[in-house]
Amino acid sequence: MTCKMKKNNIILSFIIACLFILQACEEDLPTMANYKDYSFASVDSDAGSWTPVLLSSPDNIVIADPQPTSSAAYQTELEALKQVRSSLSESQKKAIAYWTNNPTLRWNEIALELIAKYNLIPGPNEDGSYTLPNPNNPDGPPPFPFAHPPYAVRALAYMSVAQYDGLIAAWHYKYQFNRAEPSEVDPSISPDYISNNIPSYPSDGAVVAQASKEVLKAMFPLEADYLEEMANQHLNSLMWAGVNVQSDLDAGKIIGQEVASIALSRAANDNMSKAQPNKAVSDSIKASAYDRFGWQWENLESPVRPVGLTPLYSQVDMWYVPTLEEVRPIAPPGMDSPELAADIKKLVDIADNVTEEQRAIANYWQDGLGTYTPPGHWNKIAIDHLIAYGQNPIRSARTLAYLNIAMMDAGISCWDAKYYYHYPRPIQLIPNFKTIAGTPNFPSYTSGHSVFSAAGAEVLSYVFPQDAQKFREWALEAAVSRVYGGIHWTFDAEVGTTQGIQVASYTIQAAQNDGAN
User: Fold this and answer.
1) What number of other Cβ atoms are within 10 A of residue 249's Cβ?
2) Distance between CA atoms of 163 and 19, rounded to whole angstroms?
3) Is 31-45+83-125+137-268 CATH 3.30.420.40?
4) Which residue ranges of the chain lie beneath pLDDT 70?
5) Where in the chain is the domain with CATH 1.10.606.20?
6) What's the pLDDT at 272?
7) What is the model's pLDDT at position 302?
8) What pLDDT does 33 receive?
9) Is-cis flag, bond preceding 122, omega within 30?
10) Which fold has domain 280-512?
11) With contact defined as beta carbons under 8 Å apart, do 423 and 297 qualify?
12) Which residues does 284 contact at the CB level (< 8 Å), separation at least 6?
């Protein structure tokens, strides 16, 4: 084959991949929830006493005492608020409706959009080689980041934890200072959001805006201008809606900035920067697995990316699991075992006789390129239920923090198993095997979607026990979808589900003891 033909093939492959991605984006981009502000099921006036994740105490972050509402300074702020509200434009009214009185959910949805946008495999160079995204050169090519599932869940975890800890600090000061909402001080102000009688200083919306913006800017550096724009719109909308004066916002921004700095300090030192090593390290991991078990996963891509996806993700700091060994699953079946032979027969039978229902399940849970990934899928499920059950901002942040912590720990545990066992995928062991889903660029055992889904379902079952059966059924469906898709063995899914449940138990234990129940 000539160099020109090779180049044309690479370009053609890239175009086909882009068309696939565009189709996936149309199908799987998050749909912004169309909800208005709502009455909260509770206000959790004692939430300032809950145990944070990163802060040792909510008063680690210090803000100034607010001016009394009777003071000249506050009255000046109140007049400024009324002036702003006297001539709202249509775009300002849309912003008020968009951000609602629980913006924790909006920022989560923004994160999901960015994950979907950046969940693209870096394309090959003209010579068939690959250049990895580099955080020190985010413009690339290729652009940074590649928001694959381990990266996505980590971004969601840090943002959600920053929101949660920041709101614990905000609630601590809200009920310490007990400054009334502007509409209670001046009845002529009719706010655009339902009043839930939560003190206004510091602004919880400002905490969420500042913390979310700062974390997402670090995770998606090319989106800094967009995130600044969204944060400014969010902050302004709180005055446009008549719920906060400027000093409420200023105090909330201080908390959000400080808690984001603490979260990002942890992120900078959690070993994620070492998760994608060079080819020599990747090859040594592969050789070690072969020495232990006599098998190894082979990447069957063309052209082949030189390194599997994040082989050292297992070295990233976990949140609540003490050691990887405590949650490492048993070894998968050997190459000559009857268990593997039976599974090969089962997968061939499924591939030859796949039903429309099985195909639909495989496609629904695929969460591949151009989507918000499996962890994002469970965040979307969580958002729908947070709205349905009227959770307030701090309850919502708590749910999302524990959800994403559990799934991040689950992902770290899963990647440990993947590269410790280095188990081949079905297409490597079954001649001429056809899959419904695209085969990922990392070993088979255990199934990432199964582990993420089981962990996510357990946390949501803890938060919403009335829906536990539904969540767990969905997790099992997500797990078996990978078998229907032909990219995993049944034991990948079954053991992965058990693994996710086990990992999530550590997070749930922390949640049970944080004072919020």
Assistant:
1) 24
2) 36
3) no
4) 1-34
5) 31-45+83-125+137-268, 280-512
6) 98
7) 76
8) 57
9) no
10) Vanadium-containing Chloroperoxidase; domain 2 (1.10.606)
11) yes
12) none
